[in-house]
Amino acid sequence: MPRPIPVAAKKVVMTFAGSARVMVGSDARLLSPGAQIRDQQNRIVLPSHVAGEYKVRALVDNSGQVHRVWILTPEEIAAPDPKK
User: Fold this and answer.
1) Mean pLDDT of all residues in the chain?
2) Contact between 22 and 68 (Cβ < 8 Å)
3) Are 4 and 39 in contact (CB under 8 A)?
4) Are 69 and 58 in contact, with CB atoms under 8 Å apart?
5) Cα 72 from chain centroid?
6) How far is the C-alpha of 26 from the C-alpha of 33, rounded, in Å?
7) Cβ contacts of residue 8 below 8 Å, gap of 6+?
8) Cβ(84)–Cβ(47) below 8 Å
9) How confident is the model at residue 17 (pLDDT cuts 50, 70, 90)?
10) In this structure, is the dihedral angle defined by the CA atoms of residues 78, 67, 29 and 18, taken in order, positive or negative?
11) pTM for the full model?
């Protein structure tokens, strides 16, 4: 069963380096205070427990901070982007 990832969530490469910062491509971004990261099993994980580079789908809030992140499975990576 596919995960309910919003269509507006963009597919990007994100690097987690601890704390509240991530790299989206070559842009440094902050995680929002209520940021939620979901792993490949759809479990919520703490930012301090994620390290390295992943293909993700992400939503950014109105202030430009990363608000929701879904770390993609190999099947989700291979799937075409949903139509808006």
Assistant:
1) 92
2) no
3) no
4) yes
5) 8
6) 22
7) 59, 84
8) no
9) confident
10) negative
11) 0.92
- Provide the β-strand partners of residue 42: none
Q: How confident is the model at residue 84 (pLDDT cuts 50, 70, 90)?
A: low
- Three-state DSSP at 5 gives coil
Domain edges within the chain: 10-78
Q: Which residue has the tokens 């790299």?
A: 23
Task: Write down the H helix ranges in the chain.
Answer: 74-78
**DSSP-derived pairing of the beta strands 27-38 and 21-24:** antiparallel
**Residue (of 37, 15, 39, 34) closest to 25 by Cα position:** 15
In the DSSP assignment, the letter for residue 7 is T
